[in-house]
Write a structure and sequence with these properties.
The structure is a homodimer of 171-residue chains. Chain A is mainly α and 171 residues long. The first copy, chain A, contains eight helices and no strands. The longest helix of chain A has 37 residues.
Chain lengths: 171, 171
């Protein structure tokens, strides 16, 4: 009976914390979704500040980073591995050919649908397992390097670039 | 003995969550600190994008928001309540008189020192208590509205504006 209570208490704590981080992640995603509704193609093609990344590059970059959650969380391979070269390994100025805005919006939507579907099925406990890029040995010493911490770090990353995307309004 | 184990397990889980969020918060703060070392006064006075907030306004805004952690977490009154009117309740264009850059950097440092000192003394358990702006009744229904969630939300907020401050490099 006491062991059961112990499990329930820990499980509730974990569920609470997972909810906090997923809510923060969802909030960032909703803001990007909303911006994508509002911004014209002309605005998305504009630089967020003189000489800085365009909306197109930023959306491609965020999509490639979210797509990377699939392998690092052990869900699947990337849906769009071709984005890595253009939006992660090279800067905008590399002039590699970029997908169309319509395709990018589609990629963004599909990656998020896939992630969300998986999150809905994950148990709170799963989030506290190690992510793929950390060794079992390191994880034993540093248990904060878990899957939920990956999502937390991607959430602040997304917010960082959202602060730049918002500059496109009024362009 | 089992009750002790239960307490230990829950306490360890909570310590892990708290570490994850405070690490994320610290990482954002360090990045702002580093930018403040690098940027000249001329760069800080520049707009992060044409017609958008200057570095001065963004630093004042972030300082005022961090200062607001003191009352909402029940630590103390704000250290610099005069920042609220200029950097929270009014936009940059209001032309209210702003503190000097030297003063702002000082305020930023002092607020962060005060917060950090308090965080070092807080127990993990304290973070899961309700923050000041939520009623006991609402908190019973929505236990995710705790102090740690406030810090999580301030962390993504800081990252958002950091994405804009970084635009000042090279100005």
């Amino acid at each position: 009976m006491i062991a059961q209570q112990e499990n329930d208490s820990i499980s509730n704590e974990k569920e609470l914390f997972v909810k906090m981080v997923i809510d923060a992640w969802d909030a960032q995603n909703s803001k990007v979704d909303q911006l994508l509704e509002e911004l014209s193609d002309k605005q998305l093609k504009a630089e967020n500040a003189p000489g800085k990344n365009t909306g197109v590059y930023l959306i491609g970059h965020l999509t490639a980073v979210s797509d990377g959650l699939l392998p690092i969380l052990g869900i699947s391979e990337r849906l769009y591995p071709q984005l890595e070269e253009v939006f992660l390994k090279n800067p905008e100025k590399s002039d590699l050919e970029k997908p169309s805005i319509a395709d990018l919006k589609n990629f963004w939507r599909n990656v998020n649908l896939k992630i969300k579907g998986y999150f809905n099925e994950m148990k709170a406990e799963d989030w506290f397992g190690k992510h793929v890029a950390v060794s079992a040995e390191d994880f034993a010493k540093e248990p904060h390097r878990n899957k939920l911490n990956v999502l937390l770090s991607r959430t602040t990353h997304q917010s960082y670039h959202l602060g730049q995307l918002i500059n496109l309004k009024g362009k």
